[in-house]
Design brief:
The structure holds 2 protein chains of 2 kinds. Chain A has 13 helices and no strands. Chain A is mostly helical. Chain A has a single domain, classed as ABC transporter transmembrane region fold (Up-down Bundle). Chain B has a single domain, classed as 3-Layer(aba) Sandwich (Rossmann fold), CATH 3.40.50. Chain B has 7 helices and 10 strands. The two termini of chain B are about 25 Å apart. Classes of the chains: A mainly alpha, B alpha/beta. The interface of A and B includes residues 208, 214 and 221 of A.
Chain lengths: ~325, ~220
């Protein structure tokens, strides 16, 4: 987790709550992986053995576990996570307002009105999104847990498959999550700054409406506002393009699964794989491992985008915390 | 040059003026004095074509349509109304003027010495820093904008009310120099700023009187 996010959470008194919610939620994907892998293995094995009685019993057992797991996850989402999200929004806005009110006029003027409005709204939303929105930090952590534990199981089941999977996965991950997304925060920061300048225009347009009319300034005002609006769009498009590339690379890495089977197929024809059911089980874990990596990759993309808001909010809170007065 | 014929103006269904009529000749300088809230700024905005009368007619330099009237007037308001763009753009409002004309405007508005101290001169971006300008600096940019438009009629709405004595004198001097051959209507609550004006109107308790001629122009 970014050090600024930790500082913000501690500043808001939500650090412990957030860690508890994270711990409560983190096993979901992995437990789902275990359930799916074992269910498929059992289904194929029992079908192969034409064991109808046990197939029916297995169905009910897996249905029960699946319902319990989803009920557990939904209850965490619907109660604790939503409450934490609401508290985060409320406390963050209050803290920022407190910080604003404790400033002198001169300190307030360090930022334009549009900048303040952007920090209080769009940037606060970005902090909350970073922490709790889908495919951001929370999902990434769940995906990491899933990846690590699925990897451990895969190592135990078939170390060769794990090694080759990892070997094929790493270059894609580095390319997608590190190289391609590197500049996303810069693009998002530029977009937020343009958004603040765009917001700055709203008050003069309203207050100086008479002057704009008398001096026939509609064209220049429209040009300026359009310029800022286009800057926001341009920077966001750059970020979107990077995200799209990153996701494309990530998706391409999924294709490596087929290559992998062909590559190590020969070594599987032997003692490594007992039957088709066992093969399905290990490919399930490999798939889950991949899914974890893809989720982390997408999470990193989104977190990089939302980090802009985190930095801008932290700037204000940090200034207040370090103020010697 | 400026003629109001039986003009009625309402704000949220409440009449502010009802059937007001008067005429200002070309080149005349008219001051309107009165306490805050008596409606003198509203009257100025009607003359500027910024408000539309409920009935009656306003003719300014032969034009009666609001959009045409605004082309014939230039204004300096109580608040300078600067926009987040460069000083040059605030003065020209995006219109093309010859560089010599802009030079003349800067001298006329008395901002040359200040502009020369800025690294980027006229191209200094006011943007977020518009608030950092002193009231005098901001108002003189507004005056430069008014001069730059070079309209036949100059409308002034308390242009010095937010300024201290020295700045106010400086701004008034710049305005009077520019307005020598213009038709001027100057709204203020300080009659001492209207010395040398041809006519002084007084607005009080719903009544508009021509103090110079000693007649009541309008009584609500």
């Amino acid at each position: 987790m970014n050090h600024r996010v930790i500082r913000i959470l501690k500043e808001l008194g939500l650090w412990k709550t957030f860690v508890i919610v994270m711990i409560l939620r983190s096993p979901f994907d992995f437990l789902n992986s275990v359930l799916n892998a074992n269910m498929l293995e059992s289904f194929i094995r029992l079908t192969d053995q034409r064991d109808g009685d046990n197939l029916s019993r297995t169905f009910w057992i897996f249905l029960l576990f699946t319902l319990l797991l989803f009920a557990y996850n939904a209850s965490i989402w619907a109660t604790v996570a939503v409450k934490t999200d609401m508290m985060l929004h409320r406390r963050l806005r209050m803290k920022l307002l407190e910080s604003m009110l404790s400033r002198t006029q001169q300190e307030m003027e360090e930022y334009s009105e549009g900048d303040w409005i952007t920090r209080l709204n769009s940037d606060v939303d970005k902090v909350a999104d970073y922490l709790t929105a889908p495919i951001n930090f929370m999902h990434s952590m769940i995906a990491v847990v899933n990846f690590v534990l699925s990897s451990v199981i895969l190592i135990m089941l078939n170390p060769t498959l794990f090694g080759v999977s990892l070997f094929l996965m790493i270059p894609f991950f580095i390319l997608s999550s590190i190289v391609i997304v590197k500049n996303i925060p810069k693009f998002r920061k530029n977009a937020q700054e343009s958004f603040a300048r765009y917001t700055n225009w709203m008050e003069p347009i309203i207050e100086a409406g008479d002057a704009i009319t008398v001096f026939d300034g509609q064209d220049i005002v429209l040009d300026k506002v359009r310029e800022e609006s286009e800057k926001i769009m341009r920077e966001n498009v750059k970020a979107h393009r990077r995200t799209a590339w990153s996701l494309a690379v990530s998706a391409a890495s999924g294709m490596t699964g087929y290559l992998l089977l062909l590559l190590i197929g020969n070594s599987m024809i032997g003692t490594m794989i007992k039957d088709f059911a066992a093969l399905i089980k290990i490919t399930q874990y490999r798939g889950r491992m991949m899914m974890g990596v893809m989720c982390v990759n997408s999470g990193i993309n989104n977190m990089k985008s939302n980090l802009t808001g985190v930095v801008r909010v932290d700037e204000i809170l940090k200034a207040e915390t370090t103020d010697p007065g | 040059m400026i003629e109001l014929r039986n003009v009625t103006y309402k704000y949220e269904d409440h009449p502010v003026f009802q059937g007001i009529s008067f005429r200002v000749e070309k080149g005349q300088k008219v001051g309107i004095v009165g306490e805050s809230g008596c409606g003198k700024s509203t009257l100025l905005k009607l003359i500027a074509g910024l408000y539309t009368p409920a009935s009656g007619e306003i003719i300014v330099a032969g034009k009666s349509a609001a959009a045409e009237i605004t082309k014939k007037v230039t204004v300096v308001m109580q608040s300078p109304m600067l926009l987040p763009m460069s000083i040059r753009e605030n003065i020209t409002m995006g219109h093309d003027y010859p560089e010599e004309w802009i030079d003349m405007v800067i001298d006329a508005a008395n901002i040359r010495s200040w502009i020369d101290t800025l690294d980027k001169g006229l191209d200094t971006y006011l943007g977020d820093r518009a608030d950092e300008l002193s009231g005098g600096q901001a108002q003189r940019i507004a005056i430069a904008r008014a001069i730059c438009k070079n309209a036949e009629i100059l409308l002034l709405d308390e242009p010095t009310s937010a300024l201290d004595g020295e700045n106010a004198a400086c701004v008034l001097e710049a305005l009077n120099r520019y307005a020598a051959d213009k038709t001027v209507i100057h709204v203020t609550h300080r009659p001492e700023h209207l010395s040398g004006y041809d006519r002084i109107f007084s607005m009080k308790a719903g009544k508009l009187s021509d103090e110079t001629a000693g007649v009541i122009i309008y009584e609500s």
